[in-house]
């Protein structure tokens, strides 16, 4: 039997599926420290991760390892150059999380625009004594302009929902999407600068790469309207969190919604002192159905990549399919 490591606690029934094919070392405890993660991979043929960093040193210490299946669409925790050099396959879990994540983007954007978290904290603190015409005035979504940075599958799902809110959709992406998608979404392609100047609500849905580091920093925040909101459901590091704290404090922008943070699960402590930001602990894909679908897809990828099950040799979501069939180096 081939051997795998499941690096994180996941649904027990998914572990049972994996046990039909593999000898499974399952970490049911806290996130493995890097040295223990590396040690437990030493004799493994495959691994199932969820954001655990895998680079050249980890791969070199695991000479049998042929596939690492990430339970996430984002795979910035993988050093893909190292995967390619070692002929190790990486897989991810796209599509199954599109709608839940898009829903959550809206939830955060609406909470930020309408000051839901801020007013709830105030109410819970026992401060509500009377109605006031100017209590927690926010910004409208209906009829406003939505700016989507990153028009991939999740960005498109998010933009599709804007129709019911009669919003104008503008977007920026590495490249323009197909004309029929632009037409369906009624979305206008603009430069990043234009988007920041024009949008009432900016949502970030782009992958984290070196080029996207601090896509939104002080200069970009300075372009935004004072009434605008910024929502990040993509990755920590795409926003310069320290610059965002300043922009929120000085009311350079009205509010923000953040599900991801630089250095998470730790976050810039100043964020906790700013009232006009809604903070959630990286849960945009966290519905029961979607997390189950992600876990099962991660298992499907691992089973198939290791030559087992009905799709043996044809994993559904290879990131670097060119290494399939090559000997490990
Ligand atoms: C994951 C995510 O749950 O899919 C992604 O890229 O950000 C989340 O859905 C998280 O990354 C854990 O792997």
TrEMBL record:
Keywords tagged on the record: Oxidoreductase
Gene Ontology cellular-component terms listed: cytosol
Domain D-isomer specific 2-hydroxyacid dehydrogenase NAD-binding: 107-284
Gene3D superfamilies per record: NAD(P)-binding Rossmann-like Domain
Superkingdom of source: Bacteria
CDD domains: GDH
A GO molecular function held by the record: NAD binding
Region (Disordered): 308-329
Ranges for domain D-isomer specific 2-hydroxyacid dehydrogenase catalytic: 4-313
Pfam families: 2-Hacid_dh, 2-Hacid_dh_C
Family: Belongs to the D-isomer specific 2-hydroxyacid dehydrogenase family.
The protein's name in its UniProt record: Lactate dehydrogenase
């Amino acid at each position: 039997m081939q051997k795998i490591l499941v690096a994180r606690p996941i649904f027990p029934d998914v572990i049972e599926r994996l046990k039909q094919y593999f000898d499974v070392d399952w970490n049911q405890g806290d996130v493995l420290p890097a040295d223990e993660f590396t040690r437990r991979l030493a004799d493994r043929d495959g691994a199932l991760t969820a954001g655990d960093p895998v680079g050249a040193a980890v791969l070199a210490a695991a000479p049998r390892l042929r596939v690492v299946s990430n339970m996430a669409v984002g795979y910035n925790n993988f050093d893909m150059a190292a995967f390619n050099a070692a002929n190790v396959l990486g897989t991810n879990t796209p599509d199954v999380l599109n709608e839940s994540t898009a829903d959550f983007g809206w939830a955060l954007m609406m909470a930020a625009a309408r000051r839901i978290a801020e007013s709830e904290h105030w109410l819970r603190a026992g401060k509500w004594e009377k109605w006031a015409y100017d209590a927690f005035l926010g910004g409208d979504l209906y009829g406003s302009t939505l700016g989507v940075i990153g028009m991939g599958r999740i960005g498109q799902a998010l933009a599709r929902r804007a129709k019911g809110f009669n919003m104008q959709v503008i977007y920026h992406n590495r490249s323009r999407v197909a004309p029929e998608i632009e037409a369906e979404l009624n979305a206008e392609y603009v430069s990043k600068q234009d988007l920041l100047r024009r949008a009432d609500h900016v949502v970030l849905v782009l992958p984290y790469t070196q080029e996207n580091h601090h896509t939104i920093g002080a200069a970009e925040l300075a372009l935004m309207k004072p009434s605008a909101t910024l929502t990040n459901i993509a990755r920590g590091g795409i926003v310069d969190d320290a610059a965002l704290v300043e922009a929120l404090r000085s009311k350079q922008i009205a509010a923000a919604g953040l599900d991801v943070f630089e250095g998470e699960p730790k976050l810039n402590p100043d964020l906790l002192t700013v009232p006009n930001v809604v903070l959630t602990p990286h849960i945009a894909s966290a519905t029961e159905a979607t997390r189950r679908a992600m876990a099962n897809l991660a298992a499907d990828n691992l089973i198939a990549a290791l030559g087992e099950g009905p799709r043996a040799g044809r994993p559904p979501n290879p990131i670097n399919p060119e290494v399939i069939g090559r000997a490990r180096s």
